[in-house]
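Hi R.,

Quick one: here's the LysM peptidoglycan-binding domain-containing protein sequence you asked about.
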Amino acid sequence: MRYSQHISMLLLLTLLVGCAGTAPRDLKPWEANQDAASSRASSSGAKSLKPEYGPKLSVGEPYTVKRGDTLYAIAFRLGIDFRQLAARNGIKSPYTISVGQVLATSEPVVVASGQSRARGSASAQSNSGTQSSKPKSKSSTSKGTATKAVSKPASAATPKTKSVARTASKPQKKSASKSVEPSRPVSRWRWPSRGKVIRTFAANVHKGIDIAGKRGDPVTSAAAGKVVYAGAGVTGYGSLIIVKHNDTYLSAYGHNERLLVSEGSVVNAGQQIATMGSSGTNSVKLHFELRRQGKPVDPLTLLPKR
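And here's the predicted structure, written out as tokens:
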């Protein structure tokens, strides 16, 4: 009797242990990843639960362009305006860069005004000294002959100069009409997702907000603009989309599962650009940033209250 009771107890314990969890082979891929991530998080501490988004590149050190980089993404990681980075490297619109190209990230060296003035005064003094050594009579005669030579054909040359000025003004008007598209202000920002904010902006520690949601939830553009980056080359953001709205504002959408737009795509406000996922992180969420002239700003100060 006792032997049979022991056997029955062992069988009961085996059944309870087997029902306590799901077999690893029955887990879905993302569930397995989340379980592994949670176990790593518990062993490594609380820091892994709050990752630092987008490790900044150090301003001052040259950067070699890698495959998938864009000028906007590099400036995004440097935390500066894309036009500043372009100006430092003599890159003009449409800001094309190539793999292997070395970009200068430091600010240009500015010569002190006192030194430039001293150099200018020294050169002026040297010029005045050489001019004063010449006899006055020769300089006065040379001036007189020069004025006589110019005064004779002046009346005949006047109409020609007018015609040249008119013809030169025409291409200037054409080039102005073909200038870069105007910078349109954003009249109203839209929420990129309907989920709840689970982490707020915190200056350099957390450069945007995290919005909770379910895998596959739509991610929409916060305003009209142009996609200037779509890829997974920025560490800490997973599958990332960066939209340029005007010369002042960029918006970023990280940790997506699927990207529905590509670089160069023009998007409207509220248009779906991705689906929510957990790329580059351990839970399903959207990391959303707004940058004003390259600097992160709190999206909650611009998004409408809800």
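The CA atoms of residues 113 and 119 lie 10 Å apart.

Cheers,
M.
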